[in-house]
Amino acid sequence: MASISVVGVSVCCLLAALSPALVQAEMARYDNYRVYKLNIESVEQLQLLQLIEHHSDGYTFLSDPVNLNTTVKLVVAPHKAAEFGEFNQRFSLNAEVAFENLQALIDRQLRGRRETFGWTAYQTLEDIYTWLDTLIEQYPDVVSPIVAGESYEGREIRGVKVSYKQGNPAVFMEGTIHAREWISAATVTWILNALLTSEDLAVRNIAENYDWYVVPVANPDGYVYTHTTTRLWRKTRSRQNVLCYGADPNRNWDYKFNQGGTSTIPCSDTFSGPSPFSEIETRTLSEYIRSIPNLSTYLDFHASGQLLMIPYGHTREPLDNYYELMEIGTKAAAKLQERHGSIYKVGNIAEIIYVASGSSLDWVKGTLQTPLTFAYELRDTGEYGFLLPPEQIIPTAEETLDSVIVILEEGKAMGYH
What we know:
GO terms for molecular function: metallocarboxypeptidase activity; zinc ion binding. The protein is α/β, with parallel strands linked by helices.
């Protein structure tokens, strides 16, 4: 096996930390940054890509190099093109160009901004919070404000509660715990709007017979950063050291913390944090979720991969109601496919994506024993990833709501509510 030199690692980390992505003066641009699609076929290739992920400037992964026999996407800066060409030849990566110009893809996501709130374009945090205020004013007997936590930079983790009558079982629905996964916030807001405005009988049934606690953006600092500074940011914005910022807020929860699928390197996108609940976002959000009465269902939205996942992420061993959740998930995925033909895989996190410990889904199930716990990896299966064009927002949300209806109906039939 060929050795992989790590000479100059500290310099690379320094260059990465001083890149435009960490300078808030202006939005980082990715003109002529290529996106490559790579199939990881050997241990040697996996080691190379993990070394690049942890230590090299000029490279950014759009999906994590975790397991053999998986496909990842890697962004390569223009000044790294020659070096990556050598890697490609030396390690037989067989890299395919997915996109010639990353900036063109980002520009496509940003188009369509309008004065009125809607789902033909992606929404800023300010837009979302202003819209929530509008809902509270329009539906005072049904919609009430909630503050589900706070952020490192002092922002509130805001949401709303939708309740048509007392005594309902509760559903907690959250999006954008990973900052760059904009489709999750858009999907959550679209579903929230449907709960209030749809005349479909199945939607009215779940809207009025459950109390909905809805948080569109669980990581507000990171989400703002993706709109103002660098589109590719994933983590929180807490300062870890002189060079590194943020922790992965979906590896920071106090359940099986650091039991696999995490990094202890502060600059890594999957850095779990120095300790469980080190991030104020996860700590305060967990406290709020714990306070919700009659919580029967937890729904968490991510992107991408078209997966419907159940706990756990630290192990492939079945949880107590694994087979019932798999039955519900399989029916939900079948219903989701009917509208637009999107195919979702169903399984526990470790089975169908990779080992990932310390997630919110695992904490809600493992600590609170919430019976119905599902996490979505929304569209798509690799073409755009979390850079999904805005014209796919509404189709994604429509099919997702179809599946949520099934989850609640099947859960009720099994006595979970």
